[in-house]
Amino acid sequence: MTEQTSVQQAGPLTKHPITEHFTEWAHNVDGKRFLEQLARHAYRVCNYDAVADNYDAFYKHFGQRGTIHFAVKASAEPDILKTLIARDSGFEIATYSELRLLIECGLPKSKIGTKVNFGQTQKERSDIRKALRDGLRNFATDNIHDIRIITEVAGQLQIDKKEIRLQIRLFNAEGSSSGEGYSQSFNKRYGVDNEQAMQLAESIRATGMTVAGFTFHPGSGSEEAGMWDYGIRNAAILTRRMKEELGITVTELNLSGGFAPSEPIEYYSAHILPLIDKIYREAGAELPKSIDTEPGRWLVANAEALIGKVSNIKINRDGTRIVTMTTGVSENGTLTDLGLDFDFFILENGRARKLEKRKEIRGNLHGRACADFDVIAENTPVPAELHPDNPIADDVFVVIHGAGAYSHYMERNFWCGITPPMKMNYEDFKKGITSEVNYQRALVNSYAERSGLPLKNAMTFITQTTDRKLGEIKGSEIAKILENPELLNKLGLHMLSSVAEFVEQHSNKG
Ligand SMILES: Cc1ncc(COP(=O)(O)O)c(C=O)c1O
Hints:
This protein has 510 residues and is α/β, with parallel strands linked by helices. It is 40% helix and 18% strand. The protein has a domain at 12-45 and 301-470: Lyase, Ornithine Decarboxylase, Chain A, domain 1.
C-alpha cells in the first residue's frame, strides 16, 4: 500500500494465530509423532469463525452500496458457505456446480435471482440452462456467443428476457495483458474495450435482455486500490455513452474481487467509493444505483493455514534453496505465492522452535510432484537452518498462512497416492494436534470430505475394513487403510456410484 490514508486497522491476513499463539499449542505437541504425521500428509488448520468477522468488516464499508457476492471459487467449504448464507451474503459463481453447492448449503431458491451472479463470461450451455431453471438471472458477459446461448436457452425455458440482467465485463487495463503490477493477465482472455462494449450492449438490447451494468476484475491480490481506476473510468464513460448514443440506462457497477487480505478493507473503500462519485460526475454519467463487489480471497484467506514438513533441500548454483515439502501438489503457478505468508519451525528434542527468516537467503517452496509447476512460493526469505548439511533440516515444518483461499490449487487430491492434507479446526489443534482422538477425527473428516462421501459412509467403510468400532482403531491404522491403493479404488467406485445416485435423484425431469 503506497497511498497515505488515515486507515489504522490491519488486513485479515496480518494476524497469524498459529504463530502468535505458538506457546499455547507447542507444548501439547508430541514432536516425533507430529513429524511422522506430517511425513504422511500435511495439515489444514481451519478457523472458519474468521470468515464471519471478515464479512462483517467488508459489509461495513461496501454493504450499504450494493450486494457483496462471495466468489465461491475461492473456497467451497460448506462451513464458509453456510456462514455467509446466514449473513444474507450474495455469491459469485463460475460454474453451475457452485450454485448446486450453495443450494445444498441452504441458499433458498427464492434468493438466487437477486443474490447470485454468474461471473464466468464464457459459459457452458448446460450450465446456463440449469442456472436459469434454478432462478439465476444475473450474468456477466464479454462475448456474442455467450449472449446468443443465454438468449436461446431463455427462449426454450420461456423466461421473460427482460428479467435477465447482463453486466458487460471490461478490460482492467490498457492492452491485452494486464500489465506491470497486476497479479493476473485477465485481459488475455476476459473483457472488452469500450467500442466492443457498445456493440455488445446493442446485441443484448436486440435480444430483449437487460444491460444492467459493467464489471472488471483488477487481478487477485491487488495491493493497490488504484488498480480499480481504469475500469471505473471506462464504466463511467460507457454509462454516459450508452445513455446518449443508445438510449440504454445502465444502473450497476460491479467492482468484482481482487482485494488483498493483507490490506484493511477501508483502504479500498476510502479510495474507490469517492472516486466513483468523482469520475462518474466528471464523465457526465448517472451515478450507479448499486455498486456490487465479488471478494474471494479477502473473505477467506485467513480461514486456513497449511502445515507441511520439509523433505529435501537442494541448493541451486545461484544460491536459491529448493525446498520440497509434504504439502501436496500446488497446481497452478499463477496463483502461487499470492497473499501467502510463511513461518518455519524446527523440532529439536521433541520441542518446536521458530526459525528466523533471512532476507538474504532465498528459497523456492515446492510440493511433492516431480514438476516445476508444483511451486508454492518463489524467491521467498528462508531460514539459514534450511541447509542440506543441517542434520535435522528435514525436521523443519512450515506453516503457510493465507491458505484459506484457492487452497484446492495447493493440495491436489490423491496425486500418485499422496494422502491429502488433514483438516483440523484451530481449537482442536491447540488442544493437541497429535492426540490420538484428534488425529482420528482429522483423518476421517478429511477423507470423507475429499472422497465426496458423507462422513458416515467413510466411517462405515473404515470400521467394516477392520471389523472394529471407530474408537477402537488407532489413527495410524486408519492412515494405513486410507493409503492402501486397493481400498482407495474401492472408495473411488463407491464415490462414483454415489454421484450417479445423486444425479438420478436430482435430475430435472423433462
Ligand atoms: C469474476 C470473478 N469475480 C470474483 C473473483 C474473486 O477474486 P478474488 O479472490 O481475487 O477476490 C474472481 C477470481 O478470479 C473472478 O474471476
